[in-house]
Amino acid sequence: MSIEKNIASASIAEVVDRILDKGVIIDAFVRISLVGIELIAIEVRAVVSSVETWLKYAEAVGLTVDPATA
Length: 70
Fold this sequence. Notes:
Layout lengths: L11 H11 L1 E11 L2 E12 L2 H11 L9
Antiparallel strand pairs: 1-2
C-alpha cells in the first residue's frame, strides 16, 4: 500500500491575485509609556487590495465621497 502526498502549491501570481481580489487589512496600535506617561503612540492602518475591491467595500461602509455633494 503506497501513501500519496498531495502538496498544493501556489505561485506568487496566484497569491497576489487572491490578495488583490479579497484584500488584506493590517490594523496595529502601539503605545509605549513609562510611569503612566505616554512616550510614543503609533497607529497604523494599511489596506492592500485592488481599487475595484476597495471601492466596493468602501462604498458599503460609507468611506467614499460623492463628487456631486463634496
